[in-house]
Design brief:
The complex is a heterodimer of chains A (503) and B (50). Chain A is 67% helix and 2% strand. With 503 residues, chain A is mainly α. Chain A folds into two domains: 186 residues, no CATH class; 282 residues, no CATH class. In chain A, strands 1-2 form a two-stranded antiparallel sheet. The longest helix of chain A is centred in the middle third of the chain and has 29 residues. By secondary structure, chain B is mainly alpha-helical. Chain B is 80% helix and 0% strand. The longest helix of chain B has 33 residues. Chain B is rod-shaped. The chains are: A mainly alpha (503), B mainly alpha (50). At the A-B interface, helix 9, helix 11, helix 12, helix 14 and helix 15 of A face helix 2 of B.
Chain lengths: 503, 50
C-alpha cells in the first residue's frame, strides 16, 4: 500500500519550499535595477513590497517548519511540483499590483507562463508596460528556462542527497557531472554564455535596423533571455515581427535552436567532443523532424497560395516550425492570421510538432526528441524481431554522449510519457472546445500550453474564461514537469484526503 | 599584484574547446537554416515549373 504523507513529511516539503521562497524574494529585487536605470521610481515599491512579503512569509515558515529530516524521493517529487505553484503565487504579486494585468488570476497565468518558459500572455498592453515590468517577464523566463530548481541548487544545496532528488523530480535526471551542485553551476554558466552571445547579436541587429542604442540593448537582452529560455515573451506585442528584419529572425532562430539543445550535449561539445554534433541521436532526430515539418508546412502554405515567394515562405513557414518545435513561441505571423488564414492541416501539423517538443535536459518542453527517437527505434526493433528467426537476438541502441542500449524499460518509459502528453492534449482540447472554440484552434492552443510553446491562435486573451485560464495554468505546469511529478502530488493529495493526514 | 599580462593567444589556446564548441553549435544551427531555406526555394521552384 502506498503510504500517505505524515505531518513530518509535510514539514520537510514546507521547510524546503520556504527556503526556496527566499530565492524568489531575491529575484523580485532584480527588476529594481532596471527601474532605477529608467527612472521608474513609482514601480520600485511594488517589487519591494512583493519581495518583503515573500521574505516575511518564507522566514516565518522556516521558523515554524524547522526539521532535520532529509528530503526523500516522495518529498522531492512533491517539492518539484509545488515549487512552481509557490513561485507563481509570489512572482505574480508585482505583475498584479502594478496593474500590468487585469486580475491576480491573470498575473498567476503570466507568472506560470514565464516560469514554464511558455510565452502565452494575458497582458493587455505589452507595448506600454514599464521597462522594469517588461524586463521582469523576460527574466522570469530565463530563470524558468534554466530551471527554478537548478537555480536553487546553485545557491541553496542543503545536502547532496536532497539536491540529487530535487534534480530528479524536475525531470533532468541525466546528470552531466557526478556532483549535482557543480552540474547546476555548469548549466548556469552555459546558459549565461549563450544568453550573452545572443544579447550581443540581437543588439547589433537592432542597431543595424535603425533602432537607437538604448532600445537595441534593452530589446536585445530581453529577446535573448526569452530566446535562450525558449520562452516566447517579447518586449513588443508584435513578437519578433516588430523589427520586420530577416537578420533579427535568423538570430532568433540560432538562439532558440541552441536553447533547445540538451545541456549534456552542450557540455560535451563545449568540452571538446565536437563529433557529438553528428553522432547524437537526439540532435539527429530534431534535425530530421524539424526539416520534415518545415517541408510539410511550407508545402501546405504554398499550395494554399498564401505565400508565393521563397523568402517569405521561409520566414513564415520555417520560423513558425522552428519556434513550435523548440517550444519557444516567437511568431512572425499574427495569431488572428494563423486562425483565420492558415489551413487547418497546418494548424494540425504545428500542434503535432509542439507536442513532440525539443531536447531533454533543455529549456524547452514537450515529449522530447530523445523519446521520439526511442519510440521510433523501438518500433523498428519490433519489426526486425517479427521478421527474424525465433533464435535471433535483436538489439538496438542510441547515442547520447555514449552508446546506450535500448532496453524495454527505456522504451516503456518513453511511451508512457508520450501517452501522458497525448491524454493531456485530448483533455485540454476538449475543455477548450467546450468554451466554444473550433477544434483546430483548440488543439493548437492546448498543444501550445502543454508543450510550453507559447504560439497562439488567438484564444489566450484577457477575455478568456477564468476556468480556461486555470485549466491552462495546470497544463503549463503538467507539461513542464513531464506530468509525473504533478501526478505524484495529486496522488498524495487524494490519499491524504481519503485517509486523513496521520499525526 | 597577482595580475599577469593578458595574452590573447594564451586565452584562445586555453579556451579553444569552449570557443570552438560555441562556433560549432552556431554552425549546426546555420546548417539547419540553410537546409530549410533550400527546401523553401525548391518548393517554390517546383510549383512554378511549367
Amino acid at each position: 500500500m502506498i503510504p500517505a504523507l505524515e505531518r513530518e513529511d509535510l514539514k520537510v516539503i514546507g521547510f524546503n519550499l520556504c527556503k526556496f521562497g527566499n530565492i524568489v524574494g531575491f529575484l523580485l529585487l532584480v527588476p529594481i535595477i532596471v527601474a532605477v536605470i529608467y527612472k521608474e521610481f513609482d514601480i520600485i515599491p511594488h517589487f519591494l513590497i512583493a519581495s518583503s512579503i515573500t521574505f516575511i512569509l518564507c522566514n516565518v515558515g522556516i521558523h515554524f517548519l524547522q526539521t532535520k529530516k532529509e528530503m526523500e524521493l516522495k518529498h522531492a517529487l512533491c517539492f518539484a511540483a509545488l515549487v512552481w505553484i509557490f513561485s507563481m503565487l509570489l512572482a505574480a504579486l508585482p505583475l498584479w499590483s502594478t496593474g500590468s494585468v487585469n486580475s491576480y488570476l491573470d498575473a498567476n497565468f503570466d507568472a506560470m507562463s514565464g516560469f514554464t518558459t511558455t510565452g502565452l500572455t494575458l497582458v493587455p498592453d505589452i507595448d506600454h508596460l514599464p521597462y522594469s515590468v517588461n524586463f521582469y517577464r523576460h527574466f522570469l523566463q530565463f530563470v524558468g528556462g534554466i530551471g527554478i530548481i537548478v537555480v536553487s541548487l546553485t545557491i541553496l544545496a542543503r545536502s547532496e542527497i536532497s539536491s540529487v532528488l530535487a534534480f530528479r523530480g524536475e525531470a533532468r535526471d541525466m546528470g552531466i557531472r557526478p556532483n549535482v551542485v557543480r552540474t547546476s553551476r555548469v548549466i548556469l554558466g552555459i546558459a549565461i554564455t549563450f544568453m550573452v552571445v545572443g544579447a550581443v547579436l540581437f543588439t547589433i541587429a537592432g542597431i543595424k535596423e535603425g533602432a537607437d542604442v538604448g532600445t537595441s540593448i534593452f530589446d536585445g537582452l530581453n529577446y535573448s533571455m526569452s530566446a535562450y529560455g525558449t520562452g516566447g515573451f517579447t518586449p513588443h506585442s508584435q513578437s519578433v515581427l516588430f523589427y520586420h528584419s530577416a537578420l533579427y529572425e535568423i538570430i532568433a532562430v540560432i538562439i532558440i535552436l541552441i536553447g533547445a539543445f540538451n545541456f549534456s550535449f552542450h557540455f560535451a561539445v563545449l568540452g571538446g567532443r565536437r563529433r557529438e554534433i553528428f553522432k547524437n541521436t537526439e540532435i539527429r532526430t530534431i534535425f530530421i523532424t524539424l526539416i520534415i515539418s518545415t517541408l510539410i508546412i511550407a508545402g501546405l502554405l504554398l499550395l494554399s497560395g498564401i505565400y508565393s515567394s521563397p523568402d517569405v515562405l521561409f520566414r513564415k513557414a520555417f520560423f513558425q516550425a522552428a519556434s513550435a518545435h523548440t517550444a519557444t513561441g516567437f511568431g512572425t505571423v499574427y495569431p488572428a492570421q494563423i486562425s483565420a488564414v492558415w489551413p487547418g492541416a497546418v494548424l494540425f501539423m504545428m500542434s503535432l510538432i509542439m507536442i513532440l517538443g525539443t531536447c531533454a535536459n533543455s529549456t524547452g518542453g514537450g515529449i522530447k526528441a530523445i523519446r521520439v527517437a526511442v519510440i521510433g527505434k523501438s518500433f523498428i526493433k519490433e519489426i526486425k524481431k517479427a521478421l527474424s528467426p525465433n533464435s535471433a537476438v535483436v538489439t538496438a541502441k542510441f547515442h547520447h554522449i555514449d552508446d546506450v542500449p535500448l532496453t524495454d524499460t527505456i522504451a516503456r518509459g518513453a511511451m508512457l510519457i508520450a501517452l501522458g502528453y497525448v491524454l493531456l492534449l485530448i483533455a485540454g482540447t476538449t475543455i477548450t472546445m467546450l468554451h466554444g472554440y473550433s477544434m483546430p484552434d483548440s488543439m493548437y492552443e492546448t498543444a501550445s500550453a502543454v508543450g510550453n510553446v507559447g504560439l497562439s491562435s488567438g484564444i489566450t486573451t484577457p477575455a478568456m474564461h477564468g476556468l480556461l485560464k486555470a485549466t491552462y495554468i495546470f497544463l503549463l505546469l503538467a507539461g513542464r514537469l513531464e506530468i509525473t511529478a504533478v501526478l505524484v502530488l495529486m496522488g498524495f493529495a487524494i490519499l491524504g484526503l481519503r485517509r486523513g493526514i496521520k499525526k | 599584484m597577482g595580475l599577469r599580462k593578458f595574452s590573447l593567444i594564451n586565452f584562445l589556446k586555453k579556451n579553444f574547446n569552449f570557443i570552438a564548441g560555441i562556433f560549432s553549435e552556431i554552425g549546426l544551427t546555420l546548417l539547419i537554416i540553410a537546409v530549410a531555406m533550400l527546401i523553401c526555394l525548391l518548393l517554390v521552384f517546383i510549383k512554378s515549373a511549367p
